Amino acid sequence: MLPSRRAVPALAVALLAALAGVLLPAAAAVRTAHAASAEERTVQGGRLDWGVKSSFQRYVTGPIAGGSWSLTGGAATVGGGQFRFHSARGSYDPAAGAFTAAFSGGVHFIGHRTSDGSHELDLTISRPAVRISGGRGTLHADIVSKAKSTGKVASSAQVPLASLNLSGVNMKGGTSPVRLTGIPATLTAQGAQAFAGYYTAGTPLDPVSLSVDVVSGGGADPKPESTPESTPGAKPKPEPEASASPSATAGSSAAGFRAAAVDWGVRRTFREYVTGPIAQGKWTLSGGAQDGGALFRFPRGKGVYDPERQTLDASFAGAVRFTGKHLDLTLTGIAVRVEEGGGTLLADVVHEGATDKAVPLVTFEAQDFTPENGLAALTEAPAVLTERGARAFGGIYRAGTAMDPVSLAVAVADGAQLPALPDLGSDTAAPTADASADSTAAAPATSPSAASGSPTGAYLAAGAGVLAAVAAAAYAAIRRRRRASPRTADPADSWPDRPT
Question: Which of 69, 82, 271, 419 is the one with CA 20 to 30 A from 171?
Answer without folding.
Answer: 82
